[in-house]
Write a structure and sequence with these properties.
Low-confidence stretches: 252-261
CATH class of the largest domain: Alpha Beta
Shape: elongated
Number of helices: 8
Radius of gyration: 28 Å
CATH topology of the largest domain: Rossmann fold
Largest sheet: 6 strands, mixed
Number of strands: 18
Number of domains: 2
Structural class: alpha/beta
CATH architecture of the largest domain: 3-Layer(aba) Sandwich
Strand content: 25-35%
CATH superfamily of the largest domain: P-loop containing nucleotide triphosphate hydrolases
Helix content: 10-25%
Distance between the termini: 41 Å
Strand order of the largest sheet: 5-6-7-3-8-9
Amino acid sequence: MENAVEAVGLSKRFRVHRERRTLLKERLIRGRSSTEAQYFWALKDATFSVPRGSSLGLIGHNGSGKSTALKVMTGIYRPTEGHVTVNGSVSALLEVGAGFHPELTGRENIRLNATILGFTTKQINGLMDQIIEFADIGDFIDSPVKHYSSGMYVRLGFAVAVMVRPEILIVDEVIAVGDEEFQRKCFDYLHGLRKHGTSMIIVSHGLSNITDLCDEAIWLEHGHMRDIGPSADVTRAYLDDVNAREIARAVNTQPVSDDTPLEAARRGSGEIRFRGLEPFTDGDQSAGVIISGNAARLRVHYEAREPVSDAIVEMTFNDTQQIPVLTLTTQTMGPLSIPAGRGHLDFVTDAFLLLSGSYDVNVTITAEGRTLDAVPEAAEVIVRAQGIESGGTYLQHGRWELGDG
C-alpha cells in the first residue's frame, strides 16, 4: 500500500539567542551580544509512515515536538536533517486564525484559502454554502475576521480544512478551543472522512480522541520518538508514565492541626482526633495519587486521648459537585477497639474503583452513637486513570456474555 506520508530521520533544529539586542540604541551603546547562539533539537530522527487511508496520532507533553513535526510535514518548516515525502493534497489546521487575513471577511477568507489549496472559482462557489453552514457563525461570515473570537476562528478554519475534501488532513489541538457542541460536530465529521479514505495526522491532548480516531500513535518526548505502535497501546504506555511521574513527585499526607480552617467546621467530643489521610500505591509507596483499578491502601492517622471501644470510622468521598459517591466504613467488620495514643488505620483494596478525578473526603469517627470527631473536607484524594475512560464515577468489574436470541 502506498504511503500518504513517509518520514525518514526527520529532524528540526532551532537557534536560540539567550541575549538579544534588537534595538539600534542597544547595539550602539552595548555592541553586539557576546553570548554565543545555542541550538536545540525540537525534533530529532523521527522515522514513520502513514499508509494511505489510515490515521496517525501524535501525543506527548507540551514542548515535546508535536507541532514542530506537523509544521515540517506541511512545509512550514524545512527539516534540518532527514526528509519527508507527502503523496496527495494536504489541508492543515495548525493554529487559530492561521492563513486568515484579518482585514478580509470570513467569506473572502474562504475564497482566499480555497484558492491557495488549488480550487477553481467554480469549485469554490460550489463549496461556499457547505463551508458557511458547517462553520455556523451567522452574519459574522461577512465581517472582517479580526473581529472574530478564537472559537469563531476555529469554526471557520476547520470548516475550510475539511470541506475541501483533502487526501491528507493534518490537525493540531486547535479544535479544543471550540465549544462542546462544535467539538462533537468536528469529531463526527472526522470519522466520516476516515471512512471515505482520507489520511489523517492528529495532535491532541485528549487521549480518547487519539484512540478513537487513529490507527497508530507516536509518543514524542523532548523531540525524540519514545514509542510508536497501535494507538491504544501507545496511549496506555504514555498514561502509565505520566502516572508514575506524578506518584514520584507527590506526597499526600494531610494532617489536620488546630490552626487549620477546617477546625471551624470540626465537631465531636474529641476522645479521638483525625490527624491525616495518606494514600499508598499498590507497591506500598506513599503517594499523592491513586491509580483507578489498581491496588491501593488508604491510611487514616489518628490520636486517641484515651482507649475507645466500639469505634466506627467512616470516610465519604465527594465529587467536585460535593455529591457523595463512595463511603468506606469499618462498620462492615464490626466495632473497633482503639488504644490511647497515636496510631493509624488502613483501608486496603485489590482494586480501587473510583474513576479519575479529585475527591474531597469527609471523615467521621463515632462510638455508641456519639460523635467523637467529624471533619468535613478533611482531605483530598486524587485518582488518575490507568487507561482511557469513557466517563462516569465508578469502574464496575464484571464481564459481558454474548448470547443468541
